[in-house]
Amino acid sequence: MKAALSIKTSLVAMALVLSGCATTNPQDPFEGFNRAMFTFNDKVDQVAVKPAAEVYSNVVPQFVQIGVGNFFGNLGDVWTAINNFLQGKVEDGFSDVMRVAVNSTFGFAGVLDIGSEAGLTKHREDFGQTLGKWGVKSGPYVVLPIFGSSTLRDTAAMPVDMGADLWSYYDPVRWRNAGSIVRLVDLRASVLDASNLVEEAALDRYVFVRDAYLQRRQSKVYDGDAPSSKYEHDVGPTEAIDESAGKNLPASASEPATGPVVKLEKNEGAGTMPVAETKQ
């Protein structure tokens, strides 16, 4: 699985280079390729993922949906803690460790979010954010097949995030696969309203999702205290985005909008499949 992902990442990078899709936007030099992937991902979402999420949202009791999100979120808190330590945010890292300890014991393996009730703030960190904190530039915006919105830096970090996903080691495999499907559908269900809003309101959904994703990722890397420019200095200017509309986008969502292609962050952990945005 991990080897296949590395091969897929390499092939995507090669396709981007060979595409030679020049644009006037320095942040999005592969716009032709990205739009094609965006359309493909949107079709997958409309045909398969979104209908399943709508059924799930309407049929599964709300408390069960909350429990599913909490369970996978608790697994993700482990990787978040490690990334906080790697970024030098020791206090946040210890807080995450306490969250995992409390939720795993008193919260029935994380099904109940006792940590939040106890005042332990939930954080969401992934290896792409850690690389950004270490000074690695984001590089151009890319849209990955199925995984959705990303940058070259986040794409390179994705195998590490997926390798750190504790659920990927669960046995037996049939239960692991079943849980992964439930996780994907639950994430998509959590952003149904937001994705519907984008579908109805945005004149160009591709541009809307791209700009919102880049703005959000920059904010997450700098913990809300970004440089004066709208995005990281290495990627250059872009179109303005309606701030109020951006707030309605799904979080990944290892964030993630529209289709199974925008990062989600309901309670995502490492390797979360982007569903309607994109990465944790």
From TrEMBL:
Region annotation Disordered: where it falls in the sequence: 223-280
Top-level taxon of origin: Bacteria
Keyword Transit peptide: no
Keywords: Lipoprotein, Signal
Signal peptide feature range: 1-24
One Pfam family named in its UniProt record: MlaA
Segments passing through the bilayer: none
Residues in coiled coil: none
Family affiliation: Belongs to the MlaA family.
Protein's recorded name: VacJ family lipoprotein
Organism whose genome encodes this protein: Noviherbaspirillum album
